[in-house]
C-alpha cells in the first residue's frame, strides 16, 4: 500500500451522517469513520464491527497505544493526532 490504491477514495463527497450501517455501503458518500471502515475492508480485507465509531475506537484501550518517536508502525495502523 504505497498510495495508488487510495486514489479510489478521492472525490467521494463528504457527508457527516455517512456511517457504516447507517448508509449501507453507499460509495457515493463518506466521512472519516466510514473511510476507516472502507480502507480496512478494501485494503486489508478486515471488516470492522458496525459499532466501531470514532468514540468506541478511541476508547478501546486494548487497541490504542501511545507512540513515540522511533516506534515502528504496522500496516493498518491508524494515527489520531490531537
Q: How is the secondary structure organized here?
A:
Blueprint: H1 32-44, H2 54-59
Short descriptors:
mainly alpha; globular
Can you describe this structure?
It is a single chain. By secondary structure, this protein is mostly helical. It has two helices and no strands. It is globular.
What gross morphology would you assign? globular
Overall helicity: 10-25%
Strand content: under 5%
Radius of gyration: 14 Å
Oligomer class: single chain
Summarize the structure.
The chain is mainly α and 82 residues long. It has helices spanning 32-44, 54-59. The mean pLDDT is 75.
Amino acid at each position: 500500500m504505497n498510495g495508488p490504491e487510495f486514489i479510489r477514495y478521492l472525490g467521494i463527497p463528504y457527508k457527516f451522517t455517512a456511517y457504516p450501517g447507517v448508509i449501507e455501503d453507499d460509495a457515493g458518500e463518506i466521512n472519516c469513520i466510514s473511510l476507516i471502515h472502507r480502507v480496512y475492508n478494501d485494503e486489508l480485507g478486515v471488516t470492522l464491527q458496525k459499532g466501531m465509531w470514532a468514540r468506541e475506537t478511541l476508547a478501546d484501550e486494548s487497541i490504542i497505544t501511545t507512540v513515540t518517536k522511533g516506534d515502528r508502525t504496522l500496516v493498518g495502523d491508524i494515527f489520531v493526532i490531537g
